[in-house]
Structures are given as structure tokens and as C-alpha cells.
Amino acid sequence: MIRIAFTGPESSGKSTLAQAVSETLGGTYVEEYARVYLETNGPDYDVDDLETIVQGHSEAIVNSTNSLQLIDTDFIVFKIWSEYKYDAASPLIHRLVSENWFDLHILCAPDIPWEPDELRENPDDRDELFLQYVETLEKFKKPYLIVEGAHQKRLKKVTEAIKQLQRNS
After folding, report:
1. How far apart are CA 93 and CA 71, in angstroms?
2. 0.70 cut: is pTM over it?
């Protein structure tokens, strides 16, 4: 089983890219549970909701059994989100970030236009947050690939990287 996580700041193309890779390579797309939860329960949330979201996201990953899993959002997103919003991340989030759930993290650069929606909060600090993603991936020694530019360029780079992982596994 190969698990690929798509990570990065809000509105950086994670969902679009994960879905496109799923369609291209036939893997299972695992939706961002935070979006599902907030669309169901409303956009207002607190730290307890964030814990519920993290647990739901980890369960969605575990319940996906395809040999190629394309996970929209990793636990680093929850860590940075929680630290940004609440100045701290829970022990659960820290534990999940430190574990090795993914074979590769696809870090989406925020070099595409911001697309507002009712669940997005941080249009002005995506570049600063992007640097936090790089620092966190490095700190926890996670394998990652930065993608930037137009959608087709990103898709090509990611599909080539995944095909290489598949050949090596």
C-alpha cells in the first residue's frame, strides 16, 4: 500500500490535485475530513471540534484499503492550523505528526490565486504558512515533494513521483 498525503496552506490546490491524481492513476481519493465535518456542522468550531476532526480524518485513512491512497490533507495541516488558531496543538496531533503514516507528502505551494469559500480563513499569510510546512516536514524528517505552478505541471510531477514509488515498492 502506498499512501500519498497532499499538504500545504489553504487554497493551494491540494484537493484539486489529489482528485486529479486519483483519476489519472486509479488510486482512492480520501477526502479532507475537516471540510466534511464543517459542512455538516457549520463553519464555527472550537478546539474540541478540531480533535474530533483529526480523529475522523485518521479513521478515514485507516478505512481506505486501496493499494494507492491519495489523502487530501495530512496531520501537519492540523498541527499548523491548531497552532495558528489556538497557539498550540494537542498531544494527539503531535503524536500523529510524529508517526509515519505516509510514503510521500506533496507540499502544494500557494502560488495560485486564492479562492474564497465559507470555510477558509487565511488569505493573507499563505506564504508564511508555507514556510512553516517546509520547517515541519524537515523537522519530522518526512519525505516530501514541493509542487508549484500550473495544474498540469503539478499533476505531471506528482504522477511521475508516484510511479517511481510504485516501481520501487
Report:
1. 17
2. yes
